[in-house]
Amino acid sequence: MKRRDFLTTSAIAGVSGSFLRGAAPAVARAADESPNSKVRFACIGVGGKGDSDTNDAGKHGEIVALCDIDEKTLDKMAAKYPNAKKYFDYRKMLEELGDKIDAVTVSTPDHSHAVASAMAMRMGKHTFCQKPLTWSIEEARILRTLAAEKNLCTQMGNQGTADDGFREGVELLKAGALGPIKEIHVWTNRPIWPQGVKRPTDTPGIPNNVHWYEFLGPAHDRPYHGGYHPFNWRGWLDFGTGALGDMACHTINVAAMGLELFDAESVEVLDTSGIVDRETYPTWSIIKTQFGERNGRAPLSLTWYDGGDKLPEEKRAYKKLLHGEKSSGSGLLIVGEKGSFYSVNDYGAEHVLLPRDKYKEFKKPEATLPRSPGHFTEWVEAIKTKDPKKALSNFEYAGRLTETVLLGVVALKAGTKIEWDAKDMRAKNNSAADQYIRRDYRKGFSIHV
Ligand SMILES: NC(=O)c1ccc[n+]([C@@H]2O[C@H](COP(=O)([O-])OP(=O)(O)OC[C@H]3O[C@@H](n4cnc5c(N)ncnc54)[C@H](O)[C@@H]3O)[C@@H](O)[C@H]2O)c1
C-alpha cells in the first residue's frame, strides 16, 4: 500500500492551533514519502512506560523524533535510535516536524496527555496515548471528539484489551451469562507511591537534565522537587489522577466494555482517609458509582476500593461475596443474579465464574470480537488499513471509559456526591465541582484553541 493511501487523514485534517499559525499545512506529499510505507513516529515521554511504547513504535515503523523533558532519559533512548531528532518540548517538536511524521505516542504523566495528544491530533496525527486517556473529564471528551472528527486511528494504553481472555470476558458479559447484574466491586493494591502526604517544603535546585517548565506544562507553577518526577507525580492532584486514575482503566475495563459502564448517574465517596492539603490523593478511598438502565441492562453500582494494606480490613465489603475464593491484593468481582465473574488479573485477561460448581459445564459464548495481533500492532494495522475501529481501545471507547473513571476523581476532589449530567458534562447538584471537571491551563499549554 502506498503511504499516501493509508495516511490520507493527515492530509485532510490540516493544521490548526494557535501555536501552529503560520506553520506549513500538512498536505499530501509524494516527495517525502518514506521507504516501505513505514509509519513515521514521534514519541513523547520515552522513559518509564514510554520506554516500551517507544520500542513498540520502533518495531512497527520509523522513529523520526523523540521527546522527553529529562535529557538523561532522552539521551539513553536516542542512543538506540540515532537517526531520531531530539526534543524536550513536544510543541516545538510537532511544529517543526509538521508533515514528516504520521503518528505519535504519548507516554507522559497524566496531566500532559491531553495537551500533547490534542495538538498532534489537530495536525491529523494518529495517536497512541497512555491510560488514563486524560487528566480531566473535559479533556477526555475533547480527544474523543477530535478522533471522530478527524477520523484518526487512536489507541489508549490499556493493553489488556488485546488479550484473548479479556475479549472472552467481554463476550461472556455481553451474552448475559451472569443474569441481571446489580453490583460490581473492584479493589487494588495501589497506591504504591506516596499519597496522603503534604507538599515538600524544601526547594532543591532543578537538576541540569530536567526541563521543569516543560514538565509542569498545563499545571500550576510550583518549585521543582524530586518527589514528583519521575513516577511519583501520580499521587499529586495537579499531575496525576491517584490510584483510581492509575489502575481503573485496566481493572474495570472488561466490565466497562461488556456492560457499558458509561455516563454514570451519580458517584459518591463512601469513605476515605481524605485528600491532604488539596495536594495529594488519599491513602485509601471507597467510591461508589451508580449507573442507570443502559440499552436494556439493569441499573447497577460499581464500588471501588483503593489503598492496598492501608485500607482498613472491616471496610472490604467485597470479601463476603467471594464464594470462599482467596481474596487477592487486586480484583474485580461482578455479581449477577445467576452467578459472579471474578478476575484477579489487573487487566481482566483471566477470570473464573462463581460458584465454580454451577459453572462447571459452562460453554463459552461464540466469539463476536476479533482476536488481536497485539495492542500496539492492532493500532498500527488500523493506521495502515485506514480503519480506526480495528483498535479496540480507540478514543471513542477509551474516552468514555476514562470519563467513568475520572468521575470518581471529581467526587473525591469535590467532597460531595455528584449527580452527573453526562450530556452537558456537569454536576447537577454542585456547580463548584466544575473546577474538577475541567482545568485552568497555564499559558502556552491549553487544550483549547
Ligand atoms: N499501560 C500500563 O501498563 C502503564 C504502566 C505504567 C505507566 N503507564 C502510564 O504511562 C504514563 C507515564 O507513566 P510512567 O510510570 O512511565 O511515568 P514516569 O514518570 O516514570 O515516566 C514519564 C516519562 O515522561 C517524561 N515526561 C514527563 N513530562 C513530559 C513532557 N511534558 N514531555 C515529554 N516527556 C515528559 C519523563 O521524563 C519520563 O521519561 C502514565 O500515564 C501512566 O499512567 C501505563
Describe the structure.
The chain has 14 helices and 15 strands. It has a nine-stranded mixed beta sheet, with helices on one face. Strands 3-2-1-4-5-6 form a six-stranded parallel beta sheet, sandwiched between helices. Helices cover 29% and strands 16% of the residues. Mean pLDDT is 93; it is low at 1-36. It has helices spanning 3-6, 8-13, 49-60, 71-80, 90-97, 113-122, 137-150, 164-174, 212-216, 242-251, 253-259, 375-385, 395-414, 434-437; strands spanning 39-44, 61-67, 85-87, 103-106, 126-129, 154-156, 181-187, 266-272, 285-291, 300-306, 331-336, 340-343, 352-354, 418-421, 426-427. It is an alpha/beta fold. It folds into two domains: 3-160 and 375-394, NAD(P)-binding Rossmann-like Domain (Rossmann fold, 3-Layer(aba) Sandwich), CATH 3.40.50; 163-198 and 208-369 and 402-437, 2-Layer Sandwich (Dihydrodipicolinate Reductase, domain 2). The structure holds nicotinamide-adenine-dinucleotide. The site of nicotinamide-adenine-dinucleotide has 29 residues, from α3 and α9. It comes from Paludisphaera borealis.
Helix content: 25-40%
Give the low-pLDDT segments.
1-36
Q: What separation lies between the terminal Cα atoms?
A: 35 Å
Kindly report the average pLDDT value: 93
Shape: globular
| Number of H/I helices | 14
Which strand order spans the largest sheet, edge to edge or round the barrel? 13-12-11-7-10-9-8-14-15
Oligomer: single chain
Q: Tell me the total number of β-strands.
A: 15
* Secondary-structure-derived class: alpha/beta
GO molecular function, one term: nucleotide binding
Domain Gfo/Idh/MocA-like oxidoreductase N-terminal: 40-157
Domain Gfo/Idh/MocA-like oxidoreductase bacterial type C-terminal: 204-288
Protein name: Inositol 2-dehydrogenase
